[in-house]
What we know:
Low-confidence stretches: none
Strand content: 25-35%
Largest sheet: 6 strands, antiparallel, barrel
CATH architecture: Roll
Radius of gyration: 13 Å
Number of helices: 4
CATH class: Mainly Beta
Structural class: alpha+beta
Organism: Chloroflexus islandicus
Order of helices and strands: HEEEEHEEHHE
Protein name: DUF2255 family protein
Mean pLDDT: 96
CATH superfamily: Electron Transport, Fmn-binding Protein, Chain A
Number of strands: 7
InterPro entries: UCP028498
Amino acid sequence: MEGWKTDDLALIGDTDEIEVAVHASGQLTKPVPVWVVRVNDNLYVRSYRGHAGAWFRAAQASGQGRIWAGDEARDVAFVAETDPVINDQIDAAYGAKYGHSPYAGAMVAPEVRTTTLKLLPR
């Protein structure tokens, strides 16, 4: 699987909130808003509701979906990111990008951190 194009990394990584839909039962689920962060040449999302997030459970089961950054849509694969060093970098990226929000602390909580998904272009 090829990596992200530079333009896509900038577009998606700089967007405050993307929409995520999951391929389930042959169709896309209803899109939900999610925060996205960029670490190096990779994009990551987490479930604010932890494992209780329906979109996260569907993404884990399916492994495929679509994201929207503004009007631009991209098909993606969802891959669990469990490396603690990378997750530390993702925590820092969430803090840098969303630290102004009262919800930022929740995005680096241990339960939410276990829901880290890398977005790969399909």
